[in-house]
Amino acid sequence: MDKVGKKNPQCITWSKKRDQSEENDLFSSIPLELIIEILLKLPAKSVARLMFVSKHWSSIILDKDFTELYLTRSSTLPRLLLTVSVYHLKMQFLYSGALEDPYFDNHRVPPSTPDYWQFSPPVRGLICCLNATKMLIGNPSTGQFITLPRVKTRKCYIYIHSFFGYDPVNDLYKVLCMTTLNGPSRGTIGTEEHQVFTLGAQQEWRMIECKHRHRLDETQGICMNGVVYYLASFNDELSKSLISFNLSSEDFDVIHLPEDIKHRGPYSLVNYSGKIAITSYSCDGTLDLWVIKDASKQEWSKATLLVPCLTNFVGDQRFRFKGTFSTGELIFAPCTFPNPYFFIYYDLKGKKARKLVIEEIRDDLASFKLFLDHVESPMFLPKVCLSDDD
């Protein structure tokens, strides 16, 4: 999760020009510093509604400096984000809540046919959704979603992969998209076209160059410190490598995996205490992690964690390690969809495991994904101009 520096609300300045009707508005007499303090303590959904109080309040809420202040505060209270697809309703929902909060707020995702949306991990409160050639960027805190232009391609039959990230150098959100040929041969051909969409910029996809033709793995990518990481393999290799994409320079690099993990799959990419790590899907008494020490030097370290047998805690259930929460606790999610849904978080220091049941989720689930360290954001997404073809 990208960090943002703390700012003093008194150092932020907004234009104090108001029309005559607003001068007589009750809200216009409230000091700026007090307005900011009030807004910072409210849920992002409430902040979004208060944009309609007055033009003055709207200008404050829409200002980038206020968004950064809000993200700074909300990053100290990270939340879980859950994406849920329900069979019989043919709907998808986003649930978010604090680790200690039994209540999870939810928003319905705009419907999509014929398939469900696929979700990238959230970045600074925003999330990217993909279905075939359609893409959305959404703010789960406010319920706002915008549609992106269709991905450019020179091919007739393609399959699209996407990754979402934030470039802290240029303060930009970007979507990285790659196409592969759709059909029996797509698994051996590798990525064909690579392009980037910058939110709020040129409003179109830009083709970029990738010198490393690779086959994408099915695991999720992770954005950390302005770099997107994901697993992939090459045509002449059976084992996988880690690909890094710098969102500022828009360069790809290959990070080779340690020898002792290359043939141990399946495995997944996780955030382990603020570092990129690779682990096996399930855990049964011990958890092996390979952590990147220095990507530029291709340096890795191995950590083996002792955890209790979770089946003794919740019965006959297999789990996947999802990563560490900002508190340092390990998060484990069931491989299946129990009713009601639950997950386990384990405190390594206190050697205590706890079960969190999500009462709101009891329906027949088609798919379910859990994302850690989601933060609330009041950010209003800019409109994207679409062509008739979109």
Characterization of this structure:
The chain is mainly β and 390 residues long. The chain folds into 2 domains: 9-73, no CATH class; 77-374, Neuraminidase, CATH 2.120.10.80. Helices cover 12% and strands 40% of the residues. The chain contains 7 helices and 25 strands. The chain has helices spanning 20-23, 32-40, 44-49, 55-62, 64-74, 186-189, 311-314, and strands at residues 79-86, 91-98, 105-108, 118-119, 127-131, 134-139, 144-147, 158-167, 172-181, 193-198, 206-208, 215-216, 222-224, 227-233, 240-246, 251-256, 267-272, 275-280, 286-294, 299-306, 319-324, 330-334, 341-347, 352-358, 365-374. The strands form 6 sheets. Strands 12, 13, 14, 15 and 16 form a 5-stranded antiparallel sheet that branches. A 4-stranded antiparallel sheet has the order 3-2-1-25, with no helix packed on it. The chain has a 4-stranded antiparallel sheet with strand order 4-5-6-7, with no helix packed on it. Strand 18 (275-280) and strand 19 form a beta hairpin. It is globular and about 65 Å long. The two termini are 32 Å apart.
